[in-house]
Amino acid sequence: MTPTFEHFTQRDFTIVAADGFALAAKSYEPDEYKATIVIAGATGVPQKFYQRFSRFAADNGYRTVTFDYRGIARSVTLP
Question: What are the C-alpha distances in Å from 40 to residues 6, 50, 53?
């Protein structure tokens, strides 16, 4: 399911590392954007912590991407 908010779309996807390990990621995408912000959060902090900022940035015209590191939050349950 891809929720659409007033000014942006939120999308879950997977990033596959060079060694094949899958990382859970999320993007917040306005229809038209000025730039992309990639949030490489603090080690051990789930990407959900950065959700409020990501939504704020998307509402202001910036596509934002967050992800969970190996073994953290949603990346734990990926194959």
Answer: 25, 10, 13
Q: Can you tell me the mean pLDDT for 18-45?
A: 94
Q: Where are the alpha helices (DSSP H) in the chain?
A: 51-59
Compute the distance between CA of residue 51 and CA of residue 38 in angstroms, rounded to an integer: 12
Bridge partners, 28 (sequence order):
10, 64
Q: Indicate the pTM of the whole model.
A: 0.84
Q: Which tens digits make up the pLDDT trace of 62-78?
A: 999 999 999 899 998 77
Provide the residue type at 25 as one letter: A
